[in-house]
Specification:
Blueprint (H helix, E strand, L loop, with lengths): L1 E10 L4 H7 L15 E5 L2 H12 L3 E10 L4 E3 L4 H16 L11 H12 L6 E5 L14 E3 L7 E3 L4 E5 L8 E7 L8
Parallel strand pairs: 4-5
Antiparallel strand pairs: 1-2, 1-3, 2-8, 3-9, 5-8, 6-7
Helix pairs in contact: 3-4
């Protein structure tokens, strides 16, 4: 089992003590990419700042935490080809059974809901993805690409936007949830 360093970016509502006492913020938006859960950036602190600066566009707080990571309990669509194969088979089931009103508009969230709530594969307490093209080229500070060959389009992404959505914090041994930004709150928590 590996230890993961996670970062969660939240709007700064002047409540760092409340967030520290009550743990991370649950995302329950209906348009959440991976369904309702606790969203974190995997490993890279810079991605937490990117989210605050370019997506929230308001003052934000950045929290750092640790969890235990195991692909037996995490549906890892970033690092486990076998999990991707399972996910692809679930996409086919969703579309074949016309579970969605419009099967051509099936989203990642739709398939995750199907896996957990219809098929009943709910031993996955989290899901891990890399949101391709989620960081635009205009955000060069957060878009670190190194070409394999000069003049070719292929590249190695040195700052992949890997997200971990945790459905069950306790199952992942979530811990050491600490504020790391902005500095003016450091003494408050």
């Amino acid at each position: 089992m590996a230890r993961k360093v996670l970062y969660q970016t939240v709007k700064d509502k002047g409540n760092p003590k409340e967030i520290k006492e009550n743990g991370p913020i649950l995302c329950s938006n209906d348009d959440a990419w991976l369904g309702h859960g606790y969203y974190f950036w995997d490993t890279f602190e810079d991605l937490g700042h990117w989210w605050g600066q370019y997506k929230l566009r308001v003052p934000y707080m950045l929290w750092k935490a640790l969890c235990d990571f195991d692909t037996k309990s995490c549906l890892d669509l970033h690092g486990e080809p076998e999990h991707l194969a399972l996910f692809i088979s679930m996409i086919k089931l969703v579309k074949d059974q016309n579970i969605e009103d419009d099967p051509e508009n099936t989203t990642v969230s739709d398939v995750l809901y199907y896996i957990r709530n219809v098929v009943g594969i709910n031993h996955f307490t989290s899901v891990r993805v890399s949101g391709e093209l989620s960081i635009g080229a205009k955000n060069l500070t957060y878009n670190l690409k190194l070409p394999f060959e000069i003049g070719k389009n292929q590249f190695l992404n040195l700052l992949p936007p890997i997200q971990l959505c945790i459905y069950d914090l306790e199952a992942m041994n979530f811990r050491e949830h600490d504020l790391i930004y902005p500095d003016h709150y450091m003494d408050a928590v």
